[in-house]
């Protein structure tokens, strides 16, 4: 008595406890617990949410996750990756209640349904794991079904762009439009200073102290209390100083005062997505004009490896890029020769 449509009451043998379930159309029953008022509220939520969402569904958890503090702490590039990953997950699993998603389903999705896109599948699994963690906090899941499912994994890239190839590309892009020249000088900056894009896309001129001979940026990918607390102080070398001169001259050429060192046409900082799009266009055009060959093609992130490799060659040690030097050595050191002295 008092149950809503499609609800079921299942008495236990003790005659006192009753478990309530809801039967969605064409899907498995959903456990509602043993408290009747709570079960009724859940059913009302399931049938009253807009946009085809059901209470406790993966889609419902995703929408809740986007409003959580955890989402807001993610880097812009990570959020962009997750938005793309969600479009794939939503097609296959979005309508399902989290309690119905098993480890077997996740494994099949990652390694069978998405076998042709292993890197994207790993990002989708990462997002799914975060959603399960959020679902557990919301009380709609009891375990993380991604645990035990191995990712495809990816080997770090092993090549840094040769100095001659990089010089040829930078020389070519220096003859392009002003915006492409800014992209080229951003690439040159990355090769000289070793910063990630997220660390210098919002770089402002007040952070560049030419008198003290240093640039100050916040190190990215820091967690907890270290977030935006670790400052990298980069000494301005003659090569970097010459780059800053050319950047300043380009700003004067544009005839507009701008706060940012690498601005867009409207004098705002580039978004990660906007910068990536223009960078890819530059690389494609460079290949079309035979400035680069397909075998010479490199990613923007390879410039961080170029910096690391050159730093070790020039100074005999790896730069301080991570709290754990082993990470720098494993991911970014692409030297083919290791020098040491005999006894």
Task: Tell me what you see in this structure.
- This protein has 343 residues and is mainly alpha-helical.
- It folds into three domains: 1-48; 52-154, DNA polymerase, domain 1; 163-331, Intergrase catalytic core (hpI Integrase, Chain A, Orthogonal Bundle).
- It is 47% helix and 8% strand.
- The chain has helices at 36-48, 58-65, 69-73, 76-93, 103-113, 118-138, 163-173, 178-193, 197-200, 238-254, 272-288, 302-315, 325-331; strands spanning 7-11, 18-22, 30-33, 208-209, 214-218, 231-235.
- A three-stranded antiparallel β-sheet has the order 1-2-3, covered by helices on one side.
- Helix 2 packs across helix 6 (118-138), helix 8 runs antiparallel to helix 10 (238-254) and helix 8 (178-193) crosses helix 12.
- The longest helix has 21 residues, at 118-138.
- The protein is elongated.
- The N and C termini lie far apart (89 Å).
- The mean pLDDT is 87.
Report the C-alpha radius of gyration, rounded: 26 Å
What coarse outline follows from CA principal-axis ratios? elongated
In angstroms, what separates the terminal alpha carbons? 89 Å
Instruction: Give the neighbour order of strands across the main sheet.
Output: 1-2-3
Largest sheet: 3 strands, antiparallel
Per DSSP E runs of 2 or more residues, the count of β-strands stands at 6
Task: Please indicate the count of domains.
Answer: 3
Low-confidence stretches: none
Mean pLDDT over the full residue set: 87
Order of helices and strands: EEEHHHHHHHHHEEEHHHH
């Amino acid at each position: 008595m008092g149950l809503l449509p499609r609800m079921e009451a299942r008495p236990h043998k003790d005659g006192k406890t009753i478990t309530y379930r809801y039967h969605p159309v064409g899907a498995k029953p959903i456990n509602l617990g043993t408290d009747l008022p709570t079960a009724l509220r859940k059913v009302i939520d399931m049938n009253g949410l807009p946009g085809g969402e059901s209470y406790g569904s993966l889609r419902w958890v995703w929408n809740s996750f986007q409003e959580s503090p955890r989402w807001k702490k993610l880097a812009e590039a990570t959020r962009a990756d997750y938005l793309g990953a969600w479009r794939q997950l939503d097609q296959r699993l979005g309508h399902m209640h989290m309690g119905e998603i098993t480890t077997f389903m996740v494994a099949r999705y990652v390694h069978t349904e998405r076998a042709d896109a292993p890197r994207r599948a790993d990002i989708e699994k990462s997002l799914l794991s975060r959603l399960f963690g959020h679902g557990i906090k919301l009380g709609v899941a009891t375990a993380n079904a991604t645990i035990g499912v191995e990712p495809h994994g990816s080997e770090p890239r092993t090549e840094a762009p040769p100095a001659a190839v990089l010089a040829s590309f930078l020389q070519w892009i220096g003859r392009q439009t002003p915006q492409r020249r800014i992209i080229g000088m951003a690439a040159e900056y990355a090769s000289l200073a070793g910063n990630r894009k997220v660390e210098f896309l919002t770089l402002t001129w007040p952070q560049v102290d030419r008198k003290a001979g240093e640039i100050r940026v916040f190190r990215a990918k820091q967690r907890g209390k270290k977030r935006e607390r670790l400052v990298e102080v980069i000494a301005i070398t003659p090569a970097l100083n010459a780059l800053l001169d050319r950047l300043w001259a380009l700003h004067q050429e544009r005839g507009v005062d701008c706060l940012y060192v690498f601005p867009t046409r409207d004098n705002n900082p580039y978004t990660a997505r906007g910068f990536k799009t223009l960078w890819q266009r530059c690389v494609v055009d460079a290949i079309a004009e035979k400035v680069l060959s397909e075998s010479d093609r490199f990613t923007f992130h390879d410039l961080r490896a170029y910096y690391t490799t050159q730093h070790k060659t020039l100074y005999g040690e790896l730069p301080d890029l991570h709290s754990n030097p082993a990470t720098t050595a494993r991911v970014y050191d692409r030297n083919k020769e290791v020098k040491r002295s005999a006894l």
